[in-house]
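Quick entry between incubations.
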Amino acid sequence: MMRRESLAMTSRTWIAVSTLMTFCLLSSSLTMVLAVHHAQHGNPAKVARWLILTMVGGLAFLVLHANEWRELIHEGLRLTSNPWGHPGFGATFFTITGLHMFHVFTGVCYLGTVAVGFARGRFTAEDVEVSGLYWHFVDLVWMFVFPLIYLMSVDMSGGPGR
Amino acid sequence: MSGDAGSGMRPMYFVWFWLLGMTLIEVMLAYLHTPIVIMLLALLGLSLVKAALIIGYFMHLKFERLSLALTLIPAMVMCLLLFNVIFPDGNRVRSRGVFRDLPPPQAVTPAGH
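Done. Structure below.
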């Protein structure tokens, strides 16, 4: 478990952006539920619409996450060093969030494939449901990453770390 | 939107709303200077509730008890086995003080965040 002083990210922007990322993923899970619902009721146009919205949520998450990585690397966070605290934080942060980001990216590609396949009649409602299970699981993992990696590591007091 | 999706979707909107609400509570906990153990327990508790809501409603496993049991029980056993692989290393790192000789962290606040 990362200790709170491992990253002295005092700025509230760090939490605001990660909260926005959480909102994107949670909302994309809801749109995925709607896509599955319409797939089961045989409405391909609405399935495509909700799947595209789900992909947009995933892409927004990826863009925000990539930008966050870019800023942290620019400020000196590395796999083996952390300018604000515990040196083990860099490896933990990049490994866990990187693997999660990879799964979100894979999910966006997967949903795109399912959306096209369902519109063309190659995939069934069950295929949409299975893709939904994958997407919800990616969301579920983030429900643990966000509090344990982000909220537990930040110092909101404005100081350089505890 | 709810009319568009049908009345059967109403619980899903409630679940989404609760998930957002619990996320905001977690963020608020970060602003309060809660003791770290209490904060860890609170965050873990809220995360477990959120995970249960996602599994139960969004993944629809609340209505498929057998699938839920077959999903969770083997996964739980596997997690405990994997934890068992890591725990001895964690204890060894702590007892040997691997990071003891490193210089103290610099008091730097990241710019632009």
